């Protein structure tokens, strides 16, 4: 109860002698400092609103315009062409409030000139913002061939002029174009093209008839609805995508939706668990400070000055997905002064600010260590409470309404949901270690994905996991943002932890400790019978046990060598995945690759269908070439040249802006089930398919994450990993002019 007494600023007692008033000056000082911090944040928000409102100009540019106008008038010239005189005639320059006050003629002229300067300045800002929006609405630059740039694109390159002044995080938001509604005819045509290599002639004819019937009936009517929505909505599809794809899902979000991020593979900055937690928490809170102050530079298309939408950053911290009977709700709070820490079945509230200042990494390490040293056991039913967030959503919503709507449970749950983020101090060791680094890496990935199914709070926007040996990782909820946003956060965190904050020689955080810090507050629970917790845990454990996860770093070559072959690294990897799947399953399948639509305001992701007629032809050509011995390199180049360029064009950022009304989402139609999912999230969308994510690390390494289900006898993540390695090596050998260097026996096709 020590922290409770410290939180009381004053207390009084009525005695026979009168009222005995006792003030806690230390507590009052903490209240004062916290208030100062709160007001600083308000002032910062107001200042940022002004700066964003006038971008790409600056507030100080008003002074420049005003001085220019006044200087021109001083030289006996009227830059307003009579407008200043008209403004002077209509301004109420005389006031009577008991006293008669009026400005001199010179003062009236100066005030009118300032009003004209302000109006001129606002007009210039509107003109600049309109020009910026027009420039950002131009997208033909991405289809220009190297060395053949059109005049329109050359004019469009003036966009660089608007990027010379450093923007705030959200400066471009109102200038980004709205996502256009594609023509229904084009969408259906591209859909039919994507399923063409997967269907027989009879199946393709039936699908074509269905598409034509859909276009002439329901499709056109739904198209009008979408166009109507696009007229007034910021983005015609993102809110529906969030609602119906994520929040209305009633199954577990663990594994199915949540995804993970790993620590450095080969380096662990410290093996002290509390120290790694201290630095990681500090780095995350420093990132939050940058987001709140909008000091982050907006993300851009690599190699260009074109900004991407930053709307997803708004709900990064202090956000929780709360369950409902029919749909979940994303709740976001403007600020939070604490995080919630889970350790050995117990929950703690850890305050991260003291007197308006952020605790130092060493102080956070001290607080974390006190949690690790706390011997108290969990309250009855507390240990596995997190399983409610891992199971089905409806039972969790019912339990939340019935047992967590009031009292001590409500207060403790409220602390978790309002926390900046969630922290798990895991009592296991993970990472590439021991005599089986490959197997341990797979177990490390599974641990981050689902843990013990009750030691993560899967509803939080993200949770960080700190292992006993100092390894860390991240588990993120998907509905509020897509993986690239979280990836940027995690890259900043790892870099700040290792290279900016650092550690002492004995592995502890740097800095000093204020010994008067109140200890972390243990959250109390009055948990009802654990029947529903056990049922949710059983559902989650069955789901987790079925995940076949394989992670491997590919170090034979990376994007550096791929680019020397004059091929896009993404196109190279995509065709390698197609070849690997063909060898693994003896055929092709509909393939999903996620692409960003953040060139548009509030854009999220779109589907790239990387399995096409051209890619299938290319894969078969590779198989035939590897089967035939004695082929010259000239023959190989001539045979693969055309299909390679077609594949490159198909994989070079083309995506279909699909409307909500498409026949492809109907279950049971031939050839329409996604069996190969290539994305930032390593989870498959079909029970008999694969989920593959990859990260290009530097010039010489690519990390792959492959997942499938143990319950499917036709898939095996490690087997697919072997085929993927072979495919990468074979295609590189062909493109680099060394077909003999391809992997032996890799051209064999396994039967279905």
Automatic annotation (TrEMBL):
Reaction equation(s) it catalyzes: (R)-carnitine + hexadecanoyl-CoA = O-hexadecanoyl-(R)-carnitine + CoA
Pfam families documented for this protein: Carn_acyltransf (PF00755), CPT_N (PF16484)
Keywords: Acyltransferase, Fatty acid metabolism, Lipid metabolism, Membrane, Mitochondrion, Transferase, Transmembrane, Transmembrane helix, Transport
Domain Carnitine O-palmitoyltransferase N-terminal: 1-47
Gene Ontology BP annotations: carnitine metabolic process; fatty acid beta-oxidation
One annotated Gene Ontology cellular component of this protein: mitochondrial outer membrane
Active-site residue list: 478 (proton acceptor)
Keyword Zinc-finger appears in the UniProt entry: no
Highest taxon above the source species: Eukaryota
GO molecular function: carnitine O-palmitoyltransferase activity
UniProt pathway: Lipid metabolism; fatty acid beta-oxidation
Xref: CDD domains: HTH_ARSR
Location(s) in or outside the cell: Mitochondrion outer membrane
Membrane topology: Multi-pass membrane protein
Membrane-traversing stretches: 54-75, 110-132
Keyword field contains Transport: yes
EC number: 2.3.1.21
Family classification: Belongs to the carnitine/choline acetyltransferase family.
Protein name from the UniProt record: carnitine O-palmitoyltransferase
Organism for this UniProt entry: Nothobranchius furzeri
